[in-house]
Amino acid sequence: MGLDLTLLPLRGPQQMGDTSVLCHDRLSFDRDYEIFGQLTDVGEGNKPTIKANSIPPQMWVETYEDEGIKRRRDDKYGTELTFVYAERLKKLKVSDDASAKNKAIKAFVEALPNDTPILLLWR
Predict the structure, then answer these.
(1) pLDDT, tens digit, for every residue of 34-48?
(2) Count of domains in the chain?
(3) What is the extent of the structural domain holding 37?
(4) Rounded to whole angstroms, how far apart are CA atoms 62 and 70?
(5) pTM of this prediction?
(6) Residue 30, CA distances (Å) to 98, 101, 106 in order
(7) Interatomic CA distance for residues 116 and 38, integer angstroms
(8) Alpha carbon distances (Å) from 45 to 33, 40, 77, 92, 95
């Protein structure tokens, strides 16, 4: 079993005060532990360099799944969902030999306003 990451960018910072947020956009990285290790401990002695924050206590995150809309506050590992602002995520280093998809996700993040919250959904 491996670790996967999907980014859920919100429509703007005002959504951080909402009690329920429906995430329309989903950006799923190809598995790349060099990228993931910048955001979380991947068990290889790394120290994450981009700090994520817990979602606000009143917030529930809704995503479209095959069985319908799923409402959650934690990931499949039972860990509370976290987020980073685009400004911080723009510091993510993506190597030249990363997949084209991962480079495209990085370019998408670069195009977002700095105050855009991006939820991290680990799978």
Answers:
(1) 999 999 988 767 789
(2) 1
(3) 5-122
(4) 5
(5) 0.94
(6) 9, 7, 12
(7) 19
(8) 12, 11, 20, 18, 20
